[in-house]
Amino acid sequence: MAHIKTAGTTKGNRDSRGKRLGIKLYGGEKASVGNIVVRQKGTKVHPGLGTSMGKDFTIFALTSGLVKFSTRMGKKIVSVVS
After folding, report:
1. Which stretch of DSSP H or E encloses residue 3?
2. Bigger pLDDT: 6 or 78?
3. CATH numbers and ranges of domains, the chain
């Protein structure tokens, strides 16, 4: 009696795609206006001078210049300084 086993392994084998989060421009790199610096869920990194945060917590450059990471009161800050 030939038959196929229950496909339990393939049934639950689906997975979601990665969301491509993370730092897009590192410290010392050039950023122009509108460039995305950090893509994140929640505020792991806070915006500083020359940057702003979108409603999905994306930090982007408001001015062109060099990306600079620092800490202030225990929080990671990203700035774009010209």
Report:
1. none
2. 78
3. 19-81 (2.40.50.100)
Which residue has better confidence, 8 or 27?
27
| pLDDT higher than threshold 80 for residue 9 | no
User: H or E stretch including 78?
Assistant: strand 75-81
What mean pLDDT is reported for the chain? Answer: 92
Q: How far is residue 21 from each of residues 12, 17, 40, 47, measured CA to CA in Å?
A: 25, 12, 5, 16
Residues 62, 49 contacting (CB under 8 angstroms): no
CA distance 29 to 78: 12
The CA distances from residue 30 to 38, 53, 78, in Å, are 14, 18, 13
Q: What is the sign, positive or negative, of the torsion defined by CA atoms of 60, 63, 65, 67?
A: negative
